[in-house]
Amino acid sequence: MIEFRQVSKQYGSRGDSAGGSAALSEVSLSIETGELVYLSGPSGAGKSTLLKMIAAMERPSSGTISVNGQDIGRLGASGIPYLRRKLGLMFQPADLLNDRSVLANVMLPLLVTGASRADADKRARAALARVGLEDKAPAAPLALSGGEQQRVAIARAIVNRPQIILADEPTANLDRGTADKVMDALRAFHEAGVTCLIATHDESILQGARRVIRLEKGRVVSGAELSIGTGLAGAMS
Ligand SMILES: Nc1ncnc2c1ncn2[C@@H]1O[C@H](COP(=O)(O)OP(=O)(O)OP(=O)(O)O)[C@@H](O)[C@H]1O
């Protein structure tokens, strides 16, 4: 479960609200384990800021954020890798390392957390298979289409079997058919019990969505309340 209580974020200040406008203002919301939730709102509304705070890439200026009961505002430097191991992050569209193969990109999160090369190789190939790209393992990322690169980014985000996927504009710059494939891959993880929080401007994705949290100028204007009956029990561990 992800919970924000009265969270505000002011860039460039240390909790004092005197200077600049707030990127987020008193945001309170709960996301149940296993939910698929979209974040929408105009450019600058605070969507990326909200996602980054869940990953402790940005700290709240005030308020508290908890992930599975853990107050992440209180995490010390040693607790952050432990938090990130629960998370699959897709922050910039296709920020893949172009001097390495697709397989090497997907192996990376495993190698940095101490997996053996053989184990990382096996699990990275399995993750690529889940997004339908096992045959692209030896390719260079730049030899792939935009949608394929996004699916490699999904494989990299899920290779550690995260409990929560945070995706910022995963379909940006993709045509409709390719965007649909990327979304199908993300929905499949939701169906397997992974909590998914996806920021998007894509109205066609939002139309069919069960729960959308709308932000405007740093405030939640709708969707903060828990939707009834959407939580899937038993997140992947
Ligand atoms: N590192 C930063 N330093 C200062 N201000 C920032 C920083 N990152 C974001 N902001 C400001 O915080 C506000 C919210 O930005 P954020 O990127 O969270 O919005 P967004 O809804 O994700 O926008 P977009 O849809 O354009 O990606 C904006 O006013 C932005 O200019």
UniProtKB/TrEMBL annotation:
tRNA-binding in keyword set: no
Keyword set, alphabetical order: ATP-binding, Cell membrane, Membrane, Nucleotide-binding
Annotated stretches, region: Disordered: 1-21
UniProt xrefs under PROSITE patterns: ABC_TRANSPORTER_1, ABC_TRANSPORTER_2
Signal sequence segment: none
Compositional bias of kind Low complexity: 12-21
Keyword Nucleotide-binding attached: yes
Superkingdom to which the source organism belongs: Bacteria
One Gene Ontology molecular-function label: ATP binding
Limits of the ABC transporter domain: 2-236
Protein name: ATP-binding cassette domain-containing protein
PANTHER family noted in UniProt: CELL DIVISION ATP-BINDING PROTEIN FTSE (PTHR24220:SF470), IMPORT ATP-BINDING PROTEIN (PTHR24220)
